[in-house]
Design a protein that fits this description.
Strand content of chain B: under 5%
Structural class of chain B: mainly alpha
Distance between the termini of chain A: 65 Å
Order of helices and strands of chain B: HHHHH
Oligomer: heterodimer
Largest interface: A-B, 45 and 43 residues
Largest sheet of chain B: none
Number of strands of chain B: 0
Number of helices of chain A: 4
Helix content of chain A: over 70%
Radius of gyration of chain B: 20 Å
Strand content of chain A: under 5%
Distance between the termini of chain B: 72 Å
Helix content of chain B: over 70%
Shape of chain B: globular
């Protein structure tokens, strides 16, 4: 149980860091990058320890993670259209 | 040739039980669902220059920090329940599960309190009282609502599993699978809180 309490404390510390970053009023892009990086660290800790992927076969963990990562990467084509909408505002009729 | 000989059966893939493999398949599908919802939020936010940031540090972010601590703590109590069940300590397992359910219910109560306050201010999925795009409310209520449904379902399932364990109908494997779901719900919040709340502080 001690190991899990340490992970739990680590996760709480990361949440605290996220709040501090937010209060620092960073530019939105920098804040987003920082928050996403911290969220990914939290997700990794949760998957490895709380969800026990650390103790499963590596092939099992890789199969699961790759399935999600590939899908998320394939979804990324939408950003081009979002930026198109941002920069090519239609004129009012 | 008998039909059954046409099917090649192998031992369990990856050395896990069918139950565990099944819940992991569900988690992968659900993770992609949440990813799509968060991508939709990102798309709408970038494409709308008049996006409104609705939250202030007090009370919304403070409430969100409280919700996050409660949910993270519920993951720890779920770990306690799984470890106790694997050690054959039934009474301790039920106590840990009771604590997990209480924390899950507290998270839902804090969330609903926040929703009620926002609705009182005029926020709707189709209306923005601050005058910007109504998509702010649409993405907020959709994303947090989907997560809240997962929490409520989780609390109910944990209660069901606790009853089954008490009566001897379920074993620690059932609880481990339920625990994986509960930790996943916690993990999703690790993305919802920074992206939906912290990125929208005024």
């Amino acid at each position: 149980m001690r190991r899990y309490v340490i992970v739990w404390l680590g996760l709480l510390a990361i949440v605290g860091l996220e709040v501090i970053l937010t209060l620092a009023h960073l530019p939105p892009g920098v804040l987003l990058a920082g928050l996403l990086a911290l969220a990914l660290i939290e997700a990794a800790l949760g998957l490895l320890f709380f969800m026990h992927l650390r103790y499963e076969r590596r092939s099992f963990a890789l199969s699961l993670i790759l399935a999600v990562v590939i899908t998320v990467v394939l979804m990324d084509h939408i950003w081009l259209d979002a930026f198109r909408l941002l920069h090519q505002r239609l004129t009012k009729p | 040739m008998a039909e059954s000989t046409l099917v090649v059966r192998e031992p369990s893939p990856f050395g896990v039980t069918s139950r565990k493999l099944g819940i992991w398949m569900f988690i992968v599908a659900d993770a992609v669902t949440f990813a799509a919802v968060l991508f939709a939020y990102g798309y709408m936010r970038i494409a709308n220059p008049d996006w409104t940031r609705p939250f202030t540090f007090w009370p919304t972010i403070v409430n969100g920090i409280g919700m996050t601590i409660v949910l993270l703590s519920s993951s720890l109590t779920m770990i306690g329940a799984v470890l106790a069940a694997q050690a054959g300590r039934k009474a301790a397992t039920l106590r840990w599960l009771g604590a997990t359910m209480l924390l899950g219910a507290l998270f839902a109560a804090l969330h609903l309190r926040e929703w009620i306050a926002m609705i009182g201010e005029g926020w709707r999925p189709f209306r923005n009282p601050l005058g910007g795009t109504p998509l702010v409310g649409a993405t907020f209520f959709t994303t947090t609502g989907l997560h809240l449904v997962h929490v409520v379902v989780g609390v109910v399932v944990i209660g069901f599993i606790a009853l089954g364990l008490r009566r001897g109908r379920f074993d620690p494997g059932h609880l481990e699978a339920t625990g994986l779901y509960w930790h996943f719900v916690d993990l999703v919040w690790m993305f919802v809180f920074p992206l939906i709340y912290l990125m929208n502080v005024r």
